[in-house]
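2.7 Reproducibility. Because tokenized structures are sensitive to small changes in the input, we list the exact sequence used for Fumarylacetoacetate hydrolase family protein, including any N-terminal residues retained from the expression construct. No trimming or masking was applied before prediction.
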Amino acid sequence: MKLLNYYNGDNELRMGVVTDKGVVDVEQALAASPTSLQVPTTVREVLSGGQAAQDTLGHYIAGLNITSLNIAGSNTANLPQTDSAGWLKQEDELTLAPCVADPGKIICIGLNYRRHAEETNMPIPTFPILFNKFENTLNGHGRTVALPANSTKVDYEAELIVVIGKNAKNVSEDEALDYIFGYCNANDLSARDLQFRTSQWLTGKSCDGFSPIGPYLVTADEVGDPNALGIRCLVNGEVRQSSNTADMIFNVKQIVSCVSQVMTLKPGDLIMTGTPEGVVMGYPEDKQVYLQPGDVVTIEIEKLGSLTNTMVSEVALG
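Resulting structure tokens (single pass, no recycling of outputs):
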């Protein structure tokens, strides 16, 4: 199942389920086609409700007569003319929000791809390097990212996000995947000049809008092995990063287990699992060209779709 969040005309956050016919606004669908089932209407409710909530949502969506409905806002003339009640949406007409809008934690793993560690001339970590980001950094697909006025070295980082699906504390590697709800794309944008002013990376990682995620939250059953996924970053259509999650130093099982030894992971917590080689910082200094206003950055991970954002100048925004 693929979930997304979008803003309606009143700027309210709404959950949609992606189908091959369009995006189902679950709350609107329930108003038009009520059921006795306790169907979750927000991503938070799906995450908090566990497998039962996911199964109920899937059962309800499967029972809808989607093929006979018009897509709201569509001008497609050959669709059957029936009362859709406006709950089937065209994805390209939606203003998308982060696919998880209210994570309790945003945990990040640094230097977790072998070739990325090598390109930055940093040693291979003995243990996962943990740091964090905050909710102010969250951003959605198709939205702009303001390049901070106090930085000239903003870099891209294509990353796989693990979305936790149930409480996890001191879990083993063997059982770690059982605690994962799903996965999504992320761009761990990083202001390198701010990041390395001190030994702590937080400053350069925590600028507003520096964590675009999505567009979809894809359930684990649709993804399969999270350490066998192609991952790419493109800037203005040019491939900058091209790797596979198999190159992780610490795989997803190890990461979830390790973090759970330190803190209790809860539904909706996000873990950014590191970036592969190809970042600007890894180029020779005379070839480093950091992100500029107008640059379009796309993150692509196999089975998770494409996440695209345009850089703009914070100064120009006033």
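The chain has two domains: 2-95, 101-313.
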